[in-house]
Write a structure and sequence with these properties.
Layout: H1 2-26, E1 31-42, E2 46-57, E3 63-71, E4 82-88, E5 93-103, H2 104-110, E6 117-124, E7 130-138
């Protein structure tokens, strides 16, 4: 009898852990991102970078990105967010092209291993808007066709 109650307790704990993990997914933690630089324009102390961005929504519901900006550790002030950006479908990849103006130093740090960081405002159906930082991983270069 004691063995049965031990298994029931273990099953309950596992069920609670699963419920907590599902809550984290609903808050947008599972959006992962990848990037490729497609164009760079020198603007003096800054650069305009065009990025090919792939975002993967690992949740089971639509997630809207209501604002987006590229975090720049060396910029003065806050980056200007791009409003009304896109909706990520459940378990799908969304691909877009986006331009950002960042410090030249920030751009150069990417070639030394630093990863660009998207600052986004995410909103799932019926939920409040949540701010998230999404580190981007570099996509391999495109092969000539």
């Amino acid at each position: 009898m004691a063995r049965r109650s031990w298994f029931a307790t273990l099953a309950l704990v596992l069920l609670l852990l699963l419920a907590v993990a599902t809550t984290v997914k609903a808050d947008g933690y599972e959006v992962t991102g990848f990037y490729r630089v497609t164009q760079v324009t020198d603007l003096g102390p800054q650069v305009r970078v065009s990025l090919h961005i792939r975002l993967l929504n690992n949740t089971s519901q639509n997630v809207s990105i209501t604002h987006l900006s590229l975090h720049d550790l060396h910029a003065q002030g806050r980056p200007s967010p791009v409003p009304g950006w896109t909706t990520l479908q459940p378990r799908q990849v969304t691909t877009v092209e986006q331009q950002f103006v960042i410090s030249k130093w920030e751009y150069q740090s990417w070639s030394k291993g630093a990863r660009p960081m998207l600052q986004v405002a995410l909103q799932s159906a019926g939920a409040h808007e949540v701010a998230r930082a999404i580190p981007l991983r570099r996509l391999p270069p495109q092969r000539p066709q």
